[in-house]
Amino acid sequence: MTNYAEFASALTKTYKKGDIIYVPETATINMTGHPGVVIPGNVTIASNRGSNGSPGGSFLLVFFTVGLVTRVSDRTMFYITTDNVRITGLRLEGPHMTTDPSVGENSKQRSAMDLRNGKGLEVDNCEM
Predict the structure, then answer these.
(1) pLDDT tens digits along 80-126
(2) Cβ neighbourhood burial of 43 (10 Å; 0-12, 13-18, 19+)
(3) What pTM was computed for the model?
(4) In what order do the strands lie in the sheet with 58-60?
(5) What share of the chain is helix, strand, coil (3-state, %, to 5)?
(6) Closest Cα to residue 33, out of 64, 11, 4, 8?
(7) What pLDDT is recorded for position 107?
(8) For the chain, how big is the Rg over CA atoms in Å?
């Protein structure tokens, strides 16, 4: 999968524990303009970060303009609301390259992931 439409389509399937949604190392999936994506349970979203020096596939969320207002499409890239989700070997890039919560639109801190009621979330080998 190499774009948002393919990723969104993959998320509509039912998964059993251990199933993988693979993002090739050359892919950059642009999440800009899309609401926070709910990740289904029992799935691993993976790329090959670190394998033979690969940076891994990436997800990108940047600013966009509506009229004269510049905004971020959503404050969170992924919502995890169910059990047994793993995110591994990916790069997640948002609009703010800082951990300072006073920086940004309305000075509200953003996050790559929001865990809500899910158990067994594993995030490893990622660059955020």
Answers:
(1) 999 999 999 999 887 665 666 565 555 455 567 888 888 999 999 99
(2) buried
(3) 0.80
(4) 28-30, 58-60, 91-93
(5) 10, 35, 55
(6) 64
(7) 46
(8) 15
With a CB cutoff of 8 Å and minimum separation 6, the contacts of 52 are none
Tokens 């004269």 identify what position?
68
Q: What is the pLDDT of residues 2-52, one digit of tens each?
A: 999 999 999 999 999 889 999 999 999 998 877 678 999 999 999 999 999
Q: Which of 37, 34, 50, 41 is nearest to 13 (CA)?
A: 41
Has residue 70 got a pLDDT over 60? no
In whole angstroms, what is the distance from residue 47 CA to residue 21 CA?
9
Contacts of 37 (CB under 8 A, 6+ apart): 7, 8, 11, 31, 77, 78, 79
The 3-state DSSP class for residue 51 equals helix
Burial 74-94 (b: 16+ CB within 10 A, else e): bbbbbbbebebbbbbbbbbbb
Residue 19 Cα to chain centre, angstroms = 17
